[in-house]
Amino acid sequence: MAVVLLGFTIAYLLACENIPVIVLEGKAIGNAESGRSTAHLSNGFDDHYQVIEQLHGITTACSVANSHTQAIDWVEKIVAQEQMDCGFERLDGYLWIDPGTSPQFLQQELVATHRAGLNKVSWLAYTPIPSLQEKPFLHLTAPGQVNPVKYLIQLAQAIIKKRGKIFTTTPVKHIQSGKYCVISTHVGYQVKANYGVMATNKPINDRVMIHARQTCLSDLCYWCTHSQRIC
Length: 231
Known about the structure:
Layout lengths: L5 H11 L4 E4 L8 H4 L3 E2 L7 H8 L1 H24 L7 E2 L2 E3 L7 H13 L6 E3 L12 E4 L3 E2 L2 H14 L3 E3 L4 E5 L4 E5 L4 E9 L10 H6 L7 E9 L1
Parallel strand pairs: 1-8
Antiparallel strand pairs: 1-12, 2-7, 3-7, 4-6, 5-6, 9-10, 10-11, 11-12
């Protein structure tokens, strides 16, 4: 599932459970990475399941496949439940390799996807794509796609109807953990909550160098649940 849709979806599911939800969005809804994504909802990866299995084990590979499959199902369920007009549809997907890679790698990937639980993935000697008909592919059944901006805007409306609160153009400056999660915004306001969920393309931490390089206050987004007060 496209990670850019994850935060609002989490907030919606929490609001459905009558959990007080506050959303802090760094920009306008869908204005950053979210609105620029193709929003392909897929459980296939160009990082490859065989690589995931080699690095993290078969259990993790199975968890990755299962979580992404369920995420697509959840988006479909939410779209139907809220009667959204956001272009959601199921599509066939194709995974191929670059010209310099041996077809054996793709065969190994097919076996790895089956080990991960994606038993409907199949081998194709060619595809309906005219320019790529001579190349082998893996055929992925029933992935999906959605218009990300339409989905996010309508999901935000649903969150508000369920008494959730959304604050746009409110990037996070600092996060303090402890008995409560205290989130400070760039304009000086704070949110105190029992739990917080970070759902952003640019995490606010410096534990991994790429995240430290990505961090930019104008792009930060933070979720807070079980809100106690805004001060």
